[in-house]
Amino acid sequence: IDAIIHLGDYEKDARALSEILGMDVISIKGNMDNGFHPQDAFRILETEAGKLLLTHGHMQNVKSSLNGLLFLAEEQECTAALFGHTHLPLIERANGILFVNPGSLSLPAGGGDASYAIVTTAVDGVRAELRFRAKPKPSESSPQNSSSKVRGGFLRDILNNSDRL
């Protein structure tokens, strides 16, 4: 892994990851971060595959449509748009732009498994794949209520409610 990209909500989690792992974490603020300003809405990451748009996605209304994200990626001449906000994993290509949402490791939406994405850049383009962590099977010692949230654990403490790659 050359880089970790954290796509928002709780930028402090990105700082904690950076300290624990001893490497830089590229991050973007999300709608849950204090002090969010419109100029924080996106970043451009230059790669050998071209520009990658990094955004949380709430300013582009990604819960309704990817059109705002598409327009921003085209305007910025990006080959890919990486976003969060929905907590739903997605890899899709439209108008030559790769759209990637890693989902969420800590609070996946829609009852799905926890997920993250691996993004590979090369001179010949950008690729992505989703990785899933299956939900633990209920046991006699664990609560049977599937709607209860995980309250502890190393990753949960570090990643909190974050969307990340």
List keywords for this structure.
16% helix; alpha/beta; 3 helices; 33% strand; 165 residues; globular; 5-stranded mixed sheet
How would you sum up this structure, described in words?
With 165 residues, the chain is of the alpha/beta class. The chain has 3 helices and 9 strands; from the N terminus they run E-H-E-E-E-H-E-E-E-E-E-H. The protein has helices spanning 11-21, 67-75, 154-159, and strands at 4-6, 25-27, 42-47, 50-55, 78-83, 89-94, 97-102, 114-122, 125-133. The strands form 3 sheets. It has a 5-stranded mixed sheet with strand order 3-4-5-7-6, covered by helices on one side. Strands 1-2 form a two-stranded parallel ribbon.
Short account of what is shown:
By secondary structure, the chain is α/β, with parallel strands linked by helices. It has helices at residues 11-21, 67-75, 154-159; strands spanning 4-6, 25-27, 42-47, 50-55, 78-83, 89-94, 97-102, 114-122, 125-133.
